[in-house]
Design a protein that fits this description.
The complex is a heterodimer of chains A (about 260) and B (about 280).
Chain A lengths: L1 H28 L8 H38 L8 H39 L2 H7 L4 H38 L5 H10 L3 H27 L4 H34 L2
Helix pairs in contact in A: 1-5, 2-3, 2-5, 3-5, 3-6, 3-7, 3-8, 5-6, 5-7, 7-8
Chain B lengths: L21 E9 L3 E10 L4 E5 L6 H8 L7 E6 L2 E2 L5 H8 L2 E4 L11 H5 L1 H5 L4 H14 L15 H13 L5 E5 L7 H18 L2 E5 L3 H9 E4 L4 E4 L9 E7 L2 E6 L1 H5 L4 H7 L1
Parallel strand pairs in B: 3-8, 3-11, 6-7, 7-8
Antiparallel strand pairs in B: 1-2, 1-4, 4-5, 9-10, 11-12
Classes of the chains: A mainly alpha (about 260), B alpha/beta (about 280).
Chain lengths: ~260, ~280
Amino acid sequence: MAIPLIEKTAKNFVFTVQDFSIFAYQATMNLFRPPVYWTDFLMQSDIIGVGSTTIVLLSGFFTGGVLALQSAATLSAFGATGVTGRFVSLTMIRELGPVLTGIMVSGRNASSMASELGSMVVTEQIDAMRALGVDPIRRLVTPRLYACIAMLFFLTIIADFCGILGGAFVTKFMNNLNGTQYFSEAWEYLRASDITQGLVKPLFSGFIIATIGCFNGIRTTGGTEGVGRSTIQAVVWASILIIFVDFLLTQVMLTIFR
Amino acid sequence: MNETAQPWPHGHAAHAAEKPVVAFRNVFIEFAAPVLADVSFSVAPGETRVLLGPAGVGKSVLLKLSNGLLRPDSGDIWLFGEEIARTPEEKLLPLRTRTGMVFQESALFDSLTIRDNVGYQLIAEHFPDEEIDRRVREVLSFVGLEQTFDLFPGSLSGGMRRRVAIARALIHDPELLLYDSPTGGLDPVTSSTIIELIMKQRDVRRTSSILVTHRLQDAFTLCTHCFDPDQGRMMPLPEGQADPGTTFLMLEEGRLIFDGSLHELVHSENPFVREFLE
């Protein structure tokens, strides 16, 4: 009884991965063949980038603050509270900035992409688009994909900056330490390789958010209940993949920049 | 297209010599269960095929197969002389711009205005704004809804949305129209308006079409009336006459059990056809 079930699940998984690969390849390559919908790209950049600024700004600021609070408590045992700035900036830029931004944007935008496209599928709007001779992947997915990659890059920079500011706020006003020393430490020990690590990761996260969100949306079946299911799957899979790919990239980057 | 291999299983004299707009040969498709089995028929230029059958027999599936929105598991389908059953999606897209489709629930883009919905194809092809406005107004006037130009679909009634969907299907002056239950769920007066529009398109522009319906009254009205452009409304044909270009198909459990004229339909001995008519 268990074997056929495992076989069916494994087959479904392989077919889904195959479909996703074809879907992601088409969405990516559409940029290099006309028509390219630049207006849709700008609209999506506004929705994803400008729309996510507030949550990224706040989450970055408070994460930096928490890092400063926690690290100062630990570092004080070694009399090393002076390196809080270095700790916060490196952690934010290399790791937490890209990952947190990815997860926050995934919660906001992978869900909206899946639900928007899913609703269009169940109301036959995607079929209507195809019947009018317009490719829905080219029109709906490609602009979202490139907008998401571009915007996540800038949102991560904002998150890093706000995280360092949050750490500075806590260091100066709550831990009553020297603010100048904090910024000096934060800047002095920062290397180009740290910044490269931190800015390559959001490119992958952006790709994951848009492709997973749109893929789940466009494969929606089962009416409005199906739209809800697609939305949940989009957020869950995007979040898991962001952390998993971050793990792989960190390993690769550490090897490269050793 | 392979002319010799092309099916013409139930052609009508008036159209028999012409190349069909759509042709099905031995088409099978199944999802969880078989939906269509061994379906063969064709649509000649200018011909209107009314597809009858109860709900769930595969009428909408057949319509979506006609323009390649769905692919058959086996069998061949030709659209404008090109085999589409195994053609890649990117090659089907330009072919579909020569067709117009009216969906069961209208399928209007709810975030776009009526202008942008109706002119969607023209916008995608980068027509100038003035040209889009002119053609959208023209086609909205054809369906009697010029006043909805700046509105959103959500503010329209079901019947108005259906008429906007017809306008959207007509904007590119299609060579084939596919109507998926265009009168389903509408009141008799609105249904009559929609049927009149379909008749107008048939009689004024001579566009080939497949009309899916389970409403016999609509099908018979379409067959026994013609559109009078001078009076701007539909008029009954003389007693006993029927439009020769309007013919019927009937599906029963995924199989095509009838293909013929109104006269042949009403005199059919097939028990399912008799039961459906009665």
